[in-house]
From TrEMBL:
Source organism (scientific name): Actinosynnema pretiosum subsp. pretiosum
Protein name, UniProt field: tRNA adenosine deaminase-associated protein
InterPro entries: tRNA_Adeno_NH3ase_assoc_put
Amino acid sequence: MPEQEPPVHGFAVAVVREDNRWRCSTLDGDALSELDAAITQLRGLRSTGAVFGLLAVDDEFFIVLRPVPGGVSLLLSDAAAALDYDIAADVLDLLRVDPPDEEDEELWPEGDLAVLADLGMPKHELQVIVDEVDLYPDEQLQMIAQRIGFGEEFTRLLDTLQA
C-alpha cells in the first residue's frame, strides 16, 4: 500500500490587479498540494494586469508563483521544505535546483526574489521578509500584501477563510 502524504493545511490565494484595483480570491484546494494545479488555476485567470499566487503551507513555508510568458516565476521561502513536502520539491524541480541535504539546518529561499519587483516589492525587501524566520508564512505574506498595496483585500479574504 503506497504511503499517503498527510493533508496539507494553509491557504492558496490568487491575486489579480486590473484597472489599478486589487482582487484576492482563493484557489481550489488541490492548488495547495499540487504545483501544477496552482499554476493551471492562475493561468486561467486571464487579466491584462498582474496575476500571481501566494501559498502558505502548514505554517512552515510559503510559495510565490507568477505565470510569465513561457513559464512561471517561483519563490520558495525555505528550500528545506522540499524534504517534507511534494509541492516544495516540485518548485525545486521546476527551478532545476537540488534539494538540500537532510543534515543541513540552515534556512534559505530558492527562486526569484525579484518575482514581485515590478509591483513594488524590491528583491532586497522580499529577502528581509523571507529572513524573518520568527514569523509564520501567513504573517510574511501579509507583510508582502501590505507593501504592495493589497493588504486590506488580503486580510479580508484570510478572515473569511479562518471564520
